[in-house]
Every structure is written in structure tokens, then in C-alpha cells.
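G., before I forget:
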Amino acid sequence: MSNDIFASIKEGDEYVFTKNDFNRTDFVRYAGGGGDFNPIHHDQTFAEEAGLPTVFGMGMLTAGLLSRVPAEWFGPTSVKSFGVRFKTRLWPGDDVEFKGVVKKVYEEDGVTHADLDLTAVTGKGEMLIQGFSTVRPWSA
Amino acid sequence: MADINPPGMPIERGKIHEFANSIGCDEPLYHDAEAAREAGLPGVVAPLTYTAATAFFQSSDAPHLSKKLGLDMRFVLHGGQEFFYERPVFAGETLTAEQGEIIESTKEGKRGGTMKIYDSFTNFKNQDGELVLRVKNTLIQTGGVVKE
């Protein structure tokens, strides 16, 4: 987690990680961690009554994983903004690739900033989330 | 579930540890108070989406948005969420959520009939009244089940 990365960052740079085979326990662990107990994410009977084949993952679970892209890449204190739009649902068994690409590098008040495009795409090629982030060095 | 929660959201290392694990974060600054101190930080860092943890939202200063709006939870989709940070959130502080504007609009959905879209804005301030971050949350009430 070094600010040195801001000295070498350039447009087009990428950071990628994948998580394979999301399962219902991942959803339940996030329910506990994040406090989202909407039964649509853990209760098969409830999901079927709502006309769905099974439970699906919370948007904020995959958003949380996507937020690791700017945080791991530039350091957890370097993120100025992070936002997501949810495009489709995460189902049990999905593999997901989380990716960030540097869109723009610029100076603001003498401080290097970078704007990132973020995506989470399933193994079936479906766009799960589109997101953005702006990063810059920060110190306490 | 007991429906009591006084105002304010204490940011705690143990809860941050649990939340960070639930999204697979192994960065020591989320887990290890000693590592945070060595990095010159006042406490472990909360992951970026930590303030979306709805368990904390349901304090009396910020009841759960879908409950407040009276939405049918079977047909609510989370459209998106945006975070704008003045600085990181640290264990040891107490945040209070101030509900800002809620903007309502409608859209004809391709798959779920007419959708109502709610954009809700929240400011999070600490115990000294310092603005720490702003959050925009988008909820979508669909007309019925959304077909894949």
C-alpha cells in the first residue's frame, strides 16, 4: 500500500482478480457481515414464492468485492469515490471476474488522481456490475 | 428481531473484521489494529462499502430505506450505490446518518413492468460533526417479478 504507485500509473493499466463458484454460504456470510437479511438472498421457499428459481446474491456483496479492486490496487485509504450500477443478478455457482482499468490520470491541486472504470463479469459473459472509482494518495 | 437501536453507528474493529471477511478482504489494515497504528492511522480502516451494512443503517436516525418507503421486498431491486469519501472511516469513531433528499421517478422496464426508482442521499458525520462521506443509494420497485 504505497503511494509510489501514483508515480507510475498510466492510462490503460489494469488490475484483475476472480472469485469462482459463489455459493449460498457466501450469501449468508455477507448477510451476517453486512446485515442484509432480505430472505430473497437466503430462503429458497421465499425465492420460489417470488417466482425465482433460487436465492440470488446481494448486490452489495459483489459491490464489496468490486471495491477491493481500487482498495487493493491503490491502498484502502486512497479511494476518493466508488460507485456501482447493478446490471443483473448473481446466482449460486457463478464465477466472477472483477476488473479495473485506468481511464484517466490527472493532477488536481498538485495531487495525482486516477479515474478507473470497474466491471464485474460472470463466467457466462454477463455484465453483473459497472462501476467507477477515483483514487488519489491520502495520509492521516 | 428486536427493533431497538439508538442513534449513531459505532465503528468497531470486530464488526469491520467480520464485514471484511464477508467480502474476502485479507488486507491487514482492515483487521489488525497494530498494523493500522504502524501505518499512522487512528484505527483499522472500514472497507469502502462498510457504511452500506444495513444492520447499522437501521438505527433510529436512519431507518431502512425500503421500510421507510413501504416497498414490497419481493419486488425491490438495488439499482446502484455511490460513495464519496472526504477521508477513510476508522474504528473508534461514531457515525450518524443524515437522510438527505429522496428523488422519486418512474421508468418503463423492459422486463418487470413500470418501475419506480428512488434515489436517496445520506450524509455520514462523525461524533465531532465532521462530514466523513456522502452516499447515494438507488432502489427500484418493479411492477412484479423481473424475468431473466
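The first strand of chain A starts at residue 14 and ends at 19. DSSP finds four helices and five strands in chain A.

More on Monday.
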